[in-house]
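cache lookup: miss for this entity combination. No prior model stored, computing from scratch. Input as submitted by user K.M.:
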Amino acid sequence: MPSLLRSSGRSESSAAAQSLRARGLRLTRPRRLILDAVQASTAHPSASAVYRQVRRRLPRVSLATVYRNLRFLAAEGLLRERAGASGLRFDGNTRPHDHFTCVRCGRIYDVPGGGAGGGVRARLAATTGFEVLDHRIEFFGRCGECRRRARRSLTTRQRRSHGRAKPQGQ
Amino acid sequence: MPSLLRSSGRSESSAAAQSLRARGLRLTRPRRLILDAVQASTAHPSASAVYRQVRRRLPRVSLATVYRNLRFLAAEGLLRERAGASGLRFDGNTRPHDHFTCVRCGRIYDVPGGGAGGGVRARLAATTGFEVLDHRIEFFGRCGECRRRARRSLTTRQRRSHGRAKPQGQ
DNA sequence: CGCTAAACGAGAATCATTACTAATTGAGTA
DNA sequence: TACTCAATTAGTAATGATTCTCGTTTAGCG
């Protein structure tokens, strides 16, 4: 059949695609969708979350393809990989920033950061003889939403004279 | 058989043991050996590294026991759990400190830290409405040993007019 | 078109971690 | 010292995430 309505028209013309092409690499449709899924999310998705998302548009995509490309895209610097208590996560925000993890709901928030980073890093470089190439700062605590929820249930508890509230995992 | 040569004499008298005992918990021999293994190491061992170590003195110990107790001891505050690119690691140093991971050899070093921490934390608490309970700072780069190694091979390379050095994983 | 390397999909294989269960052990008490 | 009960264990099965393999498809280029 002729090329009517071909979902992936001719080769990508985005900057990313061109940069890859120059090295004999391709920004295929699965790859593009995986990148989009991560970049569109602020939730620092896991590999399987990305898989679920990409599947909506490309139902036959394989989980292996998702893993393979998350790695690939991270190596190309188009996204960032980060390991934490909740396993591997991916971050479409490649600008320097810090993270805040809510210990109650498990959500990971981006926080402006960067500012203090330089100082922290300089301090270490001066102290040790190590060559510091990068650093990461993570905060743990309770996000605004969970603080409110906790306050509310605390009030309820006091009113009803009940036991302690049960925290829920992510 | 009667109790000749019982490897674990009478109950532990360490502060940790007593604190646990007060709550009906025990610092058993496997548990004690697991704690010792982590505390004796500066290498931030993985669960299986601890397993290998404990096995030397207690060959019949089970891997499940090691995992169970690493968790238990972390919950009791006797050691710290940390997740990173190289999976779950355990840290016998419960004082606040930061970490430096060498991207070449994979070793994780403790770095004094703490000092700058407070400021970093205060900044975030002020910026967002989040309640910050804890934070973690990690540095990445090349440790002294690896820098020396790199310099040496660089020299060699120059002498022989070769291509770029191949970094080796951890 | 036809070629070649890049990339894919499917499923097997691997690895770390957790769950389960019957047996053992420790600490207090009769 | 023996008894009892809950805590803890060893061993092993189950789970879940990630990686590997391999036969097939596809993009880009002559």
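stored under new cache key. The first helix of chain B runs from residue 15 to 21.
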